[in-house]
């Protein structure tokens, strides 16, 4: 609890201090009012007996002022709490995502422990967490009220009533925390199911909106979603139900203790052990105690605390899962100058029981164009991820100009990643303007200005001309004036981004399936341009289209994670192996299609 409060103070000192002061005033004023009411009754009795009304008037005025203050204080508390939550929200958003994005590699994102901890840190979601420090203060305020009230009862009637009433309040709190904890534990074991449920939700409302209808799967996905949520929530709900029933018993004990206390006050009044004023104060305090515990807030505060602990431990967990990087700093600003080498590289995805790449050895010489072909699932895109240092090889090494990518520090590796101009297979569609979408390919901010040339070569200009605000059009149809591109148009844009990256000095061009969504003309242009572009640039192109691949100086065939053939197009055709067979198959298909066209 202290941790949450310290966090509040660190991020938003002013609002937290204001909230703490106001919460303290709320507690003190509640107890003071209970005491004052008794004094008013005593003064009233005295006035009735003819002792004058001035003290009564004074006490009534004080009580009224206190009441007024108590109606204003919550407003102040609300204002301070809102300011505090705003400050925390801003901080929390970065804290949750920051550690997940920090490593240069992506291994940690596949780790179930990291994914779970991340989900748990967001369990109350970040809005709930931002309310945490406020909840703690509100809890402490209510605790202070019950302690003050108990003291009032002890002093006004008999001392042992104080621990009895306090015990009852804290018993309710203790029990509620236990129930809350077991509920949280039930939740914690269900993050996987919740994740699946939200994935289905996303599928139903975003990714699969069209296909779900075409395949008549809308009902199926709704049922799956319900079933997943049900399975995730049922244990939590049944635990809640059990808690609610047990609560009946707990609250009955608490009510019984309160009733005993009230009877004792009445008895003391009856036998003249306490004055009417004294009894009034004590009864007010007993009532404060009866309703004073705040188990709901306690449970929420504990939950926020657990979330905060997960959030705080996230960076450490992420760094323990992201492989340790050595201290070695190297300069790769002009790499590759000699070559990039895969030396007997094997790789297995975390949690898989088979290698995706095994014993891959190849060399991309600086300035040469290189192509990789292979059937679906052969491991081509995986090889690109390794080349970019997103994953480390399970065995073997990848060197750039002789420097092992696994043996350099994060900054150097990030430097290498910035040397790569890439069009990856599942390229990113940024909700930015066309210009910015292309410009992010550039190495530095100054180089971002002129994207027109790269865009022209990628065939993007006719696409841009038809957009509502041309280059400034935001490519996000959810914003006013935003637009959406077709699959092929997006691919041209991604290509422009990679070309722009080369134009602004990147050292390695990687194109993974650059032609997959291109029309025939765009593909032909790409082939021509690729050859021109590759002159002098180290490049790796992956494609199922042999028209694109055949121009590369060296070609390798990847099959089931192994390089099975290498050579130039002519050499591979002569060798008459797997490459030649695949090439012939595609060529025959094109030829057949051509004949059909000329027959028609
Ligand atoms: N993140 C991942 N976790 C586990 N396995 C993966 C992951 N990504 C890919 N794989 C597996 O690795 C294998 C190789 O995938 P990869 O994407 O490298 O193939 P590819 O050669 O690029 O295929 P394609 O021609 O279809 O693009 C596949 O069997 C795939 O299931
Ligand atoms: Mg691929």
Map the helices and strands.
Blueprint: H1 2-11, H2 13-48, H3 54-101, H4 112-121, H5 125-130, H6 132-156, H7 161-188, H8 191-207, H9 209-214, H10 218-270, H11 276-292, H12 295-321, E1 339-347, E2 357-365, E3 369-373, H13 380-387, E4 395-400, E5 403-404, H14 410-418, E6 420-423, H15 434-439, H16 452-457, H17 461-465, H18 487-503, E7 508-512, H19 520-534, E8 538-542, H20 546-549, E9 554-559, E10 562-567, H21 569-575, H22 578-599
Parallel strand pairs: 3-8, 3-9, 6-7, 7-8
Antiparallel strand pairs: 1-2, 1-4, 4-5, 9-10
Bound molecules: adenosine-5'-triphosphate (ATP) and magnesium ion.
Domain ABC transporter: 340-585
Keywords: ATP-binding, Membrane, Nucleotide-binding, Transmembrane, Transmembrane helix
Transmembrane segments: 16-37, 49-69, 146-172, 244-270
